[in-house]
Amino acid sequence: MDFIRPDSGSITILGKDARADSTALKKLIGYVPAEPNLYANWTVDEHIQFVARVRGIDAAPAGRLKDDLELSGKPKIRHLSTGNQQKVAIVLGLMTAPKLLILDEPTRGLDPLLQAKFHALLREYHKDGGTVFLSSHNLAEVDELCTEVAVIKEGQIITASTLSNLKQKSLHNVRATFTGKVPDLVKLGATNLQLIGPTAHFQIRGDINRILQELARRPVRDLEITRASLEDMFMELYQ
Amino acid sequence: MMLWAIYKQTLRSRRMSWIIYSAIGFGLLLMYIPIFPAIQAQQATYDQLLNSMPKALLEAFNIGKSAPTLMGYMVAKHFGFVWDLMIILLMIAYSGGAIAKEIDARTMGLLLSLPVSRLRLYLVRLAAGISGLAIFVIVSELATWPLAKAFGYITSLHDIVRVGLLGFAFGLAILCLSLMVSAAVSEGGKVYAVMGGFLLVMYVLNIVASLQDKAADLKYASLFYYFAPGTVIDGGHLDPKALLVYAGISLAAAIIGALIFVRRDASV
Fold first, then answer.
1. What would the pLDDT profile of B41-55 be if each residue is shown by its tens digit?
2. pTM for this predicted structure
3. What SS3 state is found at A201?
4. Distance (Å, rounded) from C-alpha A5 to C-alpha B267?
5. Mutant choice from B113, B117, B265 vs A, greatest count of A C-beta within 10 A
6. Which class for A85: exposed (0-12), middle (13-18), buried (19 or more C-beta within 10 A)?
7. H or E element that contains A232
């Protein structure tokens, strides 16, 4: 959004330089910040009218969004809860029918019902050809909404991939309970191993056939293998 | 259209302070002007008082020796001290809120997410400040003319316009300087603190230069030296040097402020 000037490098969005063509780009971008940046003494409708006038667009689409999110136009921002303020920010970001929608923790402060409504709005927007760029610590939300992900650690992208690819790189959570001595699972490629009595909890990256074959040779009483969640993968990338 | 919307939004969001300051300015005119005949009647006492004061002190506090006229009286009572203080407070309060306070309150994020360049946003804020200053000068100073007419006093329109123009130029310099500071910091309070300190130094320089012959040249470094409505009334003309100094300061501060705002990070 060109709020912070880069020390080096460049960003290209929709074929335009994010710094040099910042003003032209913002005509194509809708933005929803993590914390609503609204004027406390303005009403919801005053915000909508202002953004519509500055962008030179019709404010009518905001009416439908307000209805979808059950938001009244009359109250002043200072009288709204954080969740309702976030709804206003969502309306302002989406009302412009942008080509790209940049969302920074957009559902923070929304209750689960409204989160679901917002997710439905995003799916509809995406179906109509829009692109969503979502920055979030809510990995369940990322898992539900995103097709491509990038994980950033200390300012560097440490992995970038489609979500399905990332999942197919296969990190599996394994819980195995042995009737006899627990074998050396680390040798078999286990990571994050935790032993609780005869039960071993660990993770396996990559093909699971090898561990299955090894475990089949040992006295296993109980076995559970699940695909790791995005959160598990995130944690592994961060460690 | 888009700039007009931001201009209107800026004026609207500060309208209470414009209205309150202008109303107070007008109220002070209404308070001072009707009692002018009583002051005129005590001219001898007034002259005696002025003659007992050092010339340098009179200059330092913008007190001219032209009390017999309405404008001379108004400059001595109001336009030479309280009025310029009001201009200072109004301009600094506006500037602090126009950029720094908006960054602090995160509302700048809403503006920066819109398709408006930072330069234009800065210029719109400056234009709104100039408009507010013009309204204040008209209501609190130029209104002297119709009020004088209403009370049946004879006064020089030229004098009123000259003092108004000087006040406007002074206010413009304060506006541009404080907006420049506002562009550089991220809290409204810092603008008030920096400008307060700066103007205090300016004021002290002017006083010291007036009272100490050895330090006389320091007066040229003070913004207040050029704001001399008493001299305007006594001399019957407005020194173009004062307007040039204020215009130069305004232009330089506006350019530097715009550059700072365009280049800075705005963490919102």
1. 777 776 777 777 777
2. 0.83
3. strand
4. 10
5. B113
6. buried
7. helix A230-238
